[in-house]
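Let us begin with a simple case.
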Amino acid sequence: MARTPGRAAIPRPSSGGFGLAFFGGVISELKKVTWPSRQQTTRLTGLVLIVSIVIGAVLGLIDIGFSRLFVLITGG
């Protein structure tokens, strides 16, 4: 069967050393990451919690409103 033009062959890992090479690559990439400071992490975690609580409250109020509207419409 002929190869499709423009389609690259998928490289196959060599037997035995694939796992070590993969994790070595992961570790080298993680060394390039600029990690946030403890203060930034704490501040952003607080922001995520506040936004989550606000969105949860808004969705809860919408749910209560639809429930009451449904009861009003169905007369139940």
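The second case is a distinct protein. As before, the sequence precedes its structure tokens.
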Amino acid sequence: MKFTERLKELRTEKRLTQRELANFLGLSANCVCEWEKGRSEPSIESLKRLAACLECTTDYLLGFSDDFGNVVVESSPLGERLTVEEKMLLRTFRALPVDLQGRARAYVDKLKELTDLEK
């Protein structure tokens, strides 16, 4: 199976749009579209991030292997696997300046309070 097919298959299995995947990778949605159509190829760095996001090896993505292989997946402190959405949120949070990280935490705390009140 070719890279283009594997990429689209894995992306749809994760229920991600091209835009969502591109946002996670810090790229434009057009990049993912071009990769899936075979018009361009990802850089080595993008390929590594793509494999991490789709939870497979780069060899699997490139079609060199039909085995996902041993993949290191970010997990929570409790050992739970993070969803793609949680990984995207974490990546976005880490990219914020420290002062905005504090504001983001305060906002999430407020949201939690509101949901606790609704119960």
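The mean pLDDT is 83. Helices lie at 3-13, 18-25, 29-36, 44-54, 58-62, 84-95, 98-118.
Keep these points in mind for the review questions at the end of the chapter.
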